[in-house]
């Protein structure tokens, strides 16, 4: 057995999937064969969520049923609402995200049933309830009244309404919808692989998604969109950007929102998200963030040939939409629940316990000496 170690499973193919693929021939991420950009242009998030979970785009009737089911499941239990009100106000919303999914697992009547039918029902409940629980925390930590979900509102409209009590203009909602489509799925990224690893012991879907959320929180993964905003806030104004980013590179800092394990000449999602970042900045009449964005990107590419990833444009876009910075990664969660769930279902359908080997470099065999002689 070769002892050649591929740290971080770099370049290692560990399984097959039908959910998504980055197709170099079209330089695009594709979900079930459809280019993500094409989906952003022609679909709303609920259509893409259906596609990722079911393998096909819905027709009108299928979409209506899917939306009705999602909207019906938005309701939280009274216990969960009371729990959320008692969470520490300073708790990080990503820790709240994994906690509320765990509590949902305690409450879900189908927790013990891992059949496909039961899992799809549980997926819809987690998909529908997590945004509602996060928005409830968003308000309760500010001492504001929790706003209940509204069945007449779309997934994106409802999230804005529950967080802010109002729905922004449709161009802002569309930009948010596009960010959810782009965040929904990305093959065997670390949080998805975490979910598949947990599933591979035939554990349950709430546990797999809880683990995935914990993984996504990391700044090398989903947590990067929050770190991007912290970086932009440190830079403060466009005239500081050139010096700031060159200093960072001189210090060999890791610059958040840049680089990717799979994309080495640019994340295919960035052009679309950058376009919508520009639309939102125009509506908000704010040019500052775009100027900082462009200067930092130019230096990163010219000096290190390292390109932005999807977290780079998404961070400032969510800021301009009015979300608190520590809520950026939870927004990634409410979208990626679709991708994680599709992979969990796929893992169950063709499972093999995930159990890699390690190359041992510790002590050779040695005899134990009794305590009174040690
Ligand atoms: C996501 O996998 C997915 O699909 C993830 C994701 C998804 O949709 O699920 O796309 C979402 O997680 C996007 C990535 C968000 N993370 C960040 O923005 C954090 C900053 N990025 C880096 O930490 C890094 O680029 C990684 C972790 C994302 C990828 O790194 P790799 O593939 O492990 O490569 P590496 O860290 O070994 O870097 C290779 C070289 C190194 O230089 P040397 O040591 O060889 O001289 O490139 C340099 C790195 O220092 N480098 C960076 C850098 N990214 C790579 N240098 C400065 N800043 C960076 N951001």
In summary, what is this structure?
By secondary structure, the protein is mainly alpha-helical. The protein has 16 helices and three strands. It has helices at 36-42, 45-54, 60-72, 78-86, 93-107, 116-140, 155-164, 170-183, 190-199, 205-216, 224-235, 238-250, 270-283, 288-304, 311-321, 328-349, and strands at residues 20-23, 28-31, 34-35.
Can you walk through the features of this model?
- This protein is mainly α and 374 residues long.
- The protein has 2 domains: 16-219 and 326-349, Citrate Synthase, domain 1, CATH 1.10.580; 224-321, Cytochrome P450-Terp, domain 2 (Cytochrome p450-Terp, domain 2).
- The chain has 16 helices and 3 strands.
- The chain has helices at residues 36-42, 45-54, 60-72, 78-86, 93-107, 116-140, 155-164, 170-183, 190-199, 205-216, 224-235, 238-250, 270-283, 288-304, 311-321, 328-349; strands at 20-23, 28-31, 34-35.
- The chain has a 3-stranded antiparallel sheet.
- A hairpin with a 4-residue loop joins β1 and β2 (28-31).
- It is globular.
- The two termini are 38 Å apart.
- The mean pLDDT is 97.
- The structure holds s-citryldethia Coenzyme A.
- The site of s-citryldethia Coenzyme A has 20 residues, from loops.
- S-citryldethia Coenzyme A is lined by residues 8, 186, 189, 220-222, 224, 254-262, 306, 309-311.
